[in-house]
Specification:
hydrolase, 323 residues, 11 helices, single chain, AB_hydrolase_fold, Rossmann fold, alpha/beta, 37% helix
Length: 323
């Protein structure tokens, strides 16, 4: 594994994503560390790491642009994550001929904000709108497919149920989407009990994947938050009833869910999503845990085959009908 890069050295040197400025050498160190230097696999691949402003945050974003892209994938990562951990999804999308645009959420990765915290989930929607604006400014090819893991999936669910009207959109992929976390009743009770006394609790690193190398890597990832802020739990507690009361949508997302997921209450979540959306397509992956973006190679292959089949048959007109 390459030597660690220095996040505090890299952050202040980033320029606006839409400005095709020369990248500082720290960017290549970042890409090597996370395995995002994919030019050897995709000749003439263009990559860009930069930032934009949204919801009062400096949001760091990354673009991969293959030769003659046929569509775009806009990627939203999960809680505690950052876009550096999504090389398998990026690799799959590039193999499909898609441009890929991703960003670190507030308080995550290289973006600004209190680590792993948020004041309100509405801020995530503002960041998503900022990502759409960057895609438009960069003139990324349509359709724009959406993909979100866990909390990233929650952000996309919120968008589809309460807005979702962009004509550029194609398919929406939800990997282990969050509506309620597992043991949500106990979590809310603990939040109310601890809120007057602490601002956060120590994070526990769970075995949320069958990929042992990924679990080991996360332990030494310099961008991993080490606490669970009570502010984020409070924001989630306000968001859950809001989204469960949201109006139904005519859209039909693609949902991938592992049956060994111990992070979200997936049975409850699937019931909510099947009620909220018009005939969503659900792929259950036996033995898969929560972090589908970094599951074992065999389990990733199963759901990537499923997604490839669905998205290859998606023309611009068909996507508009399905989305």
């Amino acid at each position: 594994m390459p030597e660690r890069f220095q996040p505090d050295t890299l952050r202040p040197r980033l320029r606006p994503l839409v400005a095709a400025a020369a990248e500082p050498p720290e960017v290549q160190a970042y890409r090597r560390f996370y395995g995002l230097d994919l030019a050897e696999r995709y000749p003439h691949l263009q990559s860009r790491l930069g930032c934009f402003q949204a919801a009062g945050y400096k949001i760091v974003a990354q673009l991969w642009w293959p030769v003659q892209p046929v569509a775009t994938l806009l990627l939203q990562h999960g809680y505690y994550d950052h876009m550096g951990l999504y090389r398998h999804v990026v690799d799959w999308a590039l193999g499909m001929g898609f441009a890929v645009l991703a960003c670190d959420l507030p308080g995550h990765g290289l973006s600004s904000g209190t680590r792993a915290s948020i004041g309100d989930f509405a801020e995530y929607q503002t960041v998503l709108q900022g990502l759409f604006a960057e895609a438009a400014a960069l003139e990324l090819p349509q359709p724009w497919h959406l993909c979100g893991q866990s909390t990233g999936g929650a952000i996309l669910v919120d968008y589809l149920l309460n807005d979702g009207g962009r004509p550029e959109l194609g398919e929406t992929i939800l990997l282990s989407p969050l509506v309620r976390p597992r043991a949500w009743g106990w979590s809310k009770f603990s939040y109310r009990l601890l809120k007057p006394f602490v601002t956060g609790i120590e994070r526990r690193f769970n075995a949320n994947s069958n990929d042992a190398n990924f679990l080991e890597f996360v332990q030494r990832d310099p961008l991993q938050p080490l606490s669970l802020p009570t502010a984020w739990v409070g924001a989630l507690a306000r968001w859950v009833p809001y989204i469960e009361a949201a109006p139904r949508s005519a859209r039909s997302p693609l949902i991938v869910q592992g049956d060994a997921d111990l992070t979200v209450d997936w049975r409850h979540n699937l019931a909510v999503l099947q009620d909220k959306f018009a005939s969503p397509t659900v792929l259950m992956v036996p033995e898969a845990r929560h972090h589908l973006a970094n599951e074992s190679a065999a389990l990733r292959a199963r759901y990537f085959d499923f997604l490839t089949e669905r998205l290859k048959s998606c023309t611009e007109s068909a996507c508009g009908l399905r989305a």
